Amino acid sequence: RNYSIGDVIARFLMMKGKNVLHPMGWDAFGLPAENAAIERGIHPAKWTYENIDYMRAQLKRMGFSYDWTREISTCAPDYYRWNQWIFLKLYEKGLAYKRLSTVNWCPRCLTVLANEQVEAGLCWRCDAMVEAKELEQWFFRITEYAEELLDYTEKLPGWPERVLTMQRNWIGKSVGAEVDFPIEGSKEAIRIFTTRPDTLYGVTFMSLAPEHPLVERITPADRLSEVKSFVEEVKREKSRVGVEEVDKLEKKGVFTGARCINPLDGTRVPVYVANFVLMGYGTGAVMAVPAHDQRDFEFARAHGIPVKVVINPPGEKLDAETMEAAYTDEGVMADSGPFSGMKSSEGIASVIGHMEKEGLGKRSVNYKLRDWGISRQRYWGCPIPVVNCARCGAVAVPCESLPVILPENVRFTGRGLSPLESAEDFINSECPKCKGPARRETDTMDTFVDSSWYFLRYTSPAEESAPFDKHDAGYWMPVDRYIGGIEHAVLHLLYARFFTKALRDLGLHGLDEPFQNLLTQGMVCKETVKCPTHGFLSPAEVAPGARCVHCGLAVDVGAVEKMSKSKKNVVDPDNLIEKYGADTTRLFSLFAAPPERDLEYTAEGVEGSYRFLGRVWRLVADNAELLGTGPYDGSKDAALEGLPELKALHQASHRTIDKVTRDIGERFHFNTAISSIMELVNALYLFRQKEKTDDGLGRKVFREAVEAVVLLLAPFAPHISEELWRGLGGEAPVYKTPWPEADPTALVAEEVTVVVQINGKVRSTVTLPADSSEEEVREVVLKDEKVAEWTKGRDVKKFIYVPNRVVNLVVA
Question: What are phi and psi of 94, to 5 degrees?
Answer without folding.
Answer: 80, 15
